[in-house]
Amino acid sequence: MKAIGTFEVKLSPMDSYAKGVDEIKLGRMSIDKQFVGDLEATSQGEMLSAMTTVKGSAGYVAIEQVKGSLSGKTGSFVLQHFGTMKQGTDRLILEVVPNSGSGELGGLSGQMTIVIDSGTHHYTFDYDLMSPAL
Fold it and tell me: For residue 40, what are the domain limits?
């Protein structure tokens, strides 16, 4: 199945435990999102990032818990992010953490893609909704 829509995101810097070395900048941020479209939900999470000295090269990982409704079914699930940029060319993987779905979203699996167009964040969520694991 496929869900499409847009979202707004607010990133806020947080204190970071780790400190970068050799001019690498490490960061930590909170994530707050509001999804609209086939996914009507809010999410909260945290992101860790590393910025290199080479322009356009960085990496990040994040976890966010999404709560709301997906195509009319209510519940929550967790998205895991893995993103890299190499001199401006990016790669982003967003997947549902296995067995993280609850409520009517128990058994949810899938991958999300994000495209930013003229400042608007668009998502496409390819997912399956199976019976929850016992």
Answer: 2-129
0.85 exceeded by pTM: yes
CB 48 within 8 A of CB 11: no
134 is a domain residue? no
Domain count, the chain: 1
CATH of the domain at 108: 2.40.350.10
Give per-residue pLDDT as tens, 68-84: 999 999 999 999 999 99
| pLDDT at res. 17 | 83
Asked if pLDDT for residue 134 goes beyond 80, the answer is: no
> Contact at 8 Å (CB) between 99 and 133?
yes
Tokens 């930590």 belong to: 28
Task: Tell me the C-alpha distance between 50 and 32, whole Å.
Answer: 20
Distance, CA of 100 to chain centre = 14
